[in-house]
Amino acid sequence: MLANDVRLLKGAAIPTVLVGLVVILVAALLAGGKGALGAAIGTVIVTIFFTLGIVAVSYASRVSPMMMMTAAVLSYAVKILVIMALLKTFEDATAFEPKAFGWAAIACTIAWTVGEMRGFMKLKMLYVDPDARVPGQGDPR
Known about the structure:
Distance between the termini: 38 Å
Helix content: over 70%
Shape: elongated
Structural class: mainly alpha
Number of strands: 0
Order of helices and strands: HHH
Low-confidence stretches: none
């Protein structure tokens, strides 16, 4: 992973974990131990899924910009679909509170997305190479 990718990962993961801790605390107060367990599972799943997404995009960025975009779109689609499937699968769970799991997954997904957007804005990465020459054009000076 490149240094920018690590900074982006930290910029998204830290707010996600903090939001997850708040959701766990609220779930514990409202639904007891089962609520806290459900919220913790939701927080962990979102954090792992979205971390894997950044790792996949980081690896793909070394191959080509087209591969990076493909990896970003596919990883996002897979993450959202798997989280939706888990929400549906766990809706009748008895070992933990499914509503707490769902709310934690939603809150952590929003926190991750906002943290990632904020991280991208702070990185100020160029998406074009300003020194690259356009084929067929001479020196602009």
